[in-house]
Amino acid sequence: MAIVKADALVKRYPNPGGKGGHLVAVDGVSLAIEPGEVFGILGPNGAGKTTTLEMLEGLTDIDGGAAWIAGIDVKAEPHKVKEIIGVQLQANEYFDHLTLSDLLRLFSRLFHRANDPMELLRRVQLEDKADAKPAALSGGQKQRFSIASALVNEPRVLFMDEPTTGLDPQAKRNLWKLVEGLNATGMTIVMTTHNMEEAEHLCGRIAIMDHGKIIAEGSPRNLIAQYAPEPPAQRTSGNLEDVFLTLTGHALRE
Amino acid sequence: MGSAWVMAGTFLKIFSRDRQSIFFTLFFPITFMAIFGFISAGREDPMKIGVVDGAASAFSAEFITALRANPLFDVTVGEEETLKAQVVEGELSFVLVLPPQFRADDEADEVTLLVDAAQARQTAMLKPLVEQTLLDIERKVRGIEPLFPLTVVDVKARSQRYIDFLIPGLLALTIMQISIGGSGYNIVEYRRKGILKRLFVTPIRPRDFITGIVLARLVITVIQVAFLLAVAVFLLEVPVVGNVLELLILIFVGSAIFLSLGFCMGSIAKTQQAIMLLGNLITLPQIFLSGVFFSVDSMPGVLQPLARVLPLTFVVSGLREVIVNGLSLAEQIPTVLGLAIWLAIGLSLAIRLFRWKEVAA
User: Fold this and answer.
1) Which of A216, B158, B212, B239 is most buried, judged by most C-beta within 10 A?
2) Which of A54, A75, A96 is the mutation pick for testing B, counting most B CBs within 10 A?
C-alpha cells in the first residue's frame, strides 16, 4: 500500500495580475509512492513542484483532491501527518542567536521528544559544529543541518525540496550518500530537483511536472527509453536531461 | 500548551543573547533618565532671587537676613538695574524691590516684585509663595503671632521634580517599544526568512506559537521595567508610592495592547521596510503626544482631544498616577476604561487581521 498517496490535488492562487480569476499552480496531481522508495519530482521553475510538496506536508491548504500519508488524511489531520514526516525546506534561515544544538533541541521538543542533538549532528557529520550558528555554515553544511532538523522525529517519510541546488560537486555527492544512507534504513524519500544527474542517481521513480500537471512518470531508465531522442551519429546524448527537455521544451522559464 | 512554553523559553533565550536589542531597548530610557536625573539631581534647587535694598535700614537688613534663612530662596542683593537685567536673562526668578519707606508700620510703601511676564505660569505660582513668605517674615520681625497658625504636613510626599514626572512616561514608552518590536517586527522577519515555515513543519499549533511570543514578551517587559524602575528609585531617588500589584497589572495590560497592535501591523506589512514605516507611523506620534515628556494639558488645544485617546496616553497616565501619586486603579476609572477599550480594539483587530495560514506562507 502506498505510504504517500495523492488524488487529483489542486492548488489555486488568486491571479496576481488582474482582479478575479485564479492561477492554477497544481492541476490534478495524483501520486502513489510506495514505502522505501526514493521518488523524484522534476520540472521547470513554476511547474508546481514545491506547492505539491507543501500540500502533501500540510503546510498549504489543499483546494481540491485529497492526500494521505500512511493512511492519514492530510486535509483532516495535518498535525498528525506532521508527527510522522520530516521536511527539508528550500529556505535555510533560523532564529538568530541559537546554535545548531539549540535549534535541534527546540525542534525535538516541538515533537515532544528528547533527542540528543549530538547524535543527530553525528548522522549528518556536523558534530564539530554543535555550538556554531547556522549563518556560519557553508552551503553543504546548511543542507545537511536542514536534513538533521528534519530527522528529529524519526520520520517515516522525508520530503526534500531541491536539496542540492547551489552545492559544489563534492557537497552534492556527500548529500547523495546521506540520502542513500537514510533510504537504506527504510525511510521513504520524496524530493524535488532540477538536477537530472541527481534524479538518475538517487530516484527509483520520477514524475516530471509542467504547468501544474504530471506529464510523465516512471523509472529513469524507462523514461529514457521512451522519450530520449534518437541518438545522432556520435552517441553524445541520450540521458535524462534530454528526456526532460524533450518533454518540457527548450523555452526559458523564469 | 507545552509547545507554547517551549517557544516562550526559546524567545527568552534568544533575547538574553541579543545584546544589541537589550542595549537599544534600555539605551533610550536610560539616556533620558541620566540627562534629566542630573538636571534635577538631589532635592529642589533654591529659587534664585534678587533683592534691592531701597531702605538700607536696620529693619530691611533684618528682613533680608530672614529671607536668606529661608531654604526656598538663594538671595542676591544688588542694584535694581543689574538685577533687572539678570531677570531678563533668566538668571534670577524675580527681584524684590524694598522701598525707601520699608517699615514695620502702616506708613510703609509698597514692595515691588519684578518678574519676567513671559513666564506667566511661574509668576502665578510665585506670587502667593512670595506673599506668604513675606507675611511670615513680617510676623517674625514684628514679633506677632499669626491669627490662624498653620502647620503644613506633607501627606503623600508627591514630588514636583521633572524626573519624577518623566519616569512613568519612559516606562510606558519602553513597554510600547518592546511589545511592538517583539510581535510586529519579529513576525515579519520570521516570515521573510522562512523561519515560520520551518516551525510549522513541526506539529506546533499557531496559537501556541503566539502564546509563546506573548509570554516571553511579558517576562521581558517586566524585567526591563523593573530594571528601569530600580535605577529610578535607587540612583535618582524617584519615590514609588503606588501599589506594586497594580503597577504590574498596568504593565501587563499596556504590554498586551501593544503586542496585539504589533500583531496587526505584522499581518498587514509584508516587508521589513513596510513594518518599519508602519511602526514609526504608530509609535512616533504617540511618543510626542501621549504625555511622556510633557503633560497633555500643556499641549496646543487642537491636539489635546486626539492626544487624550491614544493608547500610550492611558498607559502613561495610569503608570504616572500609580507610581508618582499613589492613586489606586479604582481612583482612575477613565484611564482604566481607556485601557480596556484599547485592549478590546487591539485584540479583536489582531484576531481579525492575523491569518494563521499566512503566518507560514
Assistant:
1) B212
2) A96
| CA gap B111, B113 in Å, rounded | 7
Cα B342 from Cα B260, distance rounded (Å):
10
In a domain, A202, yes or no: yes
Number of domains in chain A: 1
Interval B270-327: pLDDT, tens: 888 888 899 999 999 999 899 998 888 888 888 899 999 999 999 999 999 998 888 8
Rounded Cα–Cα distance for residues B201 and A19 (Å): 32
Range of the domain at A87: 4-214
Average pLDDT of the segment spanning B24-43? 75
Nearest neighbour of A111 by CB, restricted to B13, B14, B203: B203
Report residue B149's pLDDT band, with 50, 70 and 90 as the boundaries: low
Is residue A151 in a domain? yes
Question: Can you list the residues of chain A whose pLDDT is less than 50?
Answer: none
Three cell numbers written together for B110: 509698597
Domains belonging to chain B, first-starting first, are 7-39+160-360 (no CATH), 47-142 (3.40.1710.10)
A236 belongs to a structural domain: no
- List, in order, residues 6 or more apart from B294 with CB less than 8 Å away: none
> Which residues are CB-contacts of B315 (< 8 A; sequence separation ≥ 6)?
B172, B175, B176, B250, B253, B254, B257, B290, B339
Here the CATH number for the domain that contains residue A48 is 3.40.50.300
* Complex prediction ipTM: 0.87
Q: CB-based burial of residue B47 (10 Å sphere; 0-12 exposed, 13-18 middle, 19+ buried)?
A: middle
DSSP, residue by residue, B172-205 = HHHHHHHHHIIIIIHHHHHHHTTHHHHHHTTT--
Distance from CA of B22 to the nearest CA of A (A): 13
pLDDT of residue B185: 84
Q: Are A53 and A161 in contact (CB under 8 A)?
A: yes
Q: Are A130 and A117 in contact (CB under 8 A)?
A: yes
What's the CA gap between A130 and A92, in Å, rounded?
Answer: 17
Find where cell 524691590 sits.
B97
Chain A contact for B357 (CB, 8 A cutoff): yes
Asked if residue B67 has pLDDT above 60, the reply is: yes
Residues in A closer than 8 angstroms to B190, CB to CB, are 95
Q: Where are the alpha helices (DSSP H) in A153-219?
A: 169-184, 196-202
Return the closest-CA partner of residue A38 out of A225, A219, A212, A208: A219
pLDDT value for A18: 63
Q: What is the pLDDT of residues B154-179, one digit of tens each?
A: 554 455 678 888 899 999 999 999 99
Nearest C-alpha neighbor of A95 from the set B198, B4, B201: B198
Chain B residues within 8 A of A98 when measuring between CB atoms: 10, 13-14, 17
| Residue in this structure with the C-alpha cell 492561477, named with its chain if needed | A23
Q: Inspect the interface and report whether the beta carbons of A93 and B195 lie closer than 8 Å.
A: yes
List phi, psi (to 5°) of A32: -140, 105
First to last CA, chain A: 38
Q: What would the pLDDT profile of B328-343 be if each residue is shown by its tens digit? A: 888 899 999 999 999 9
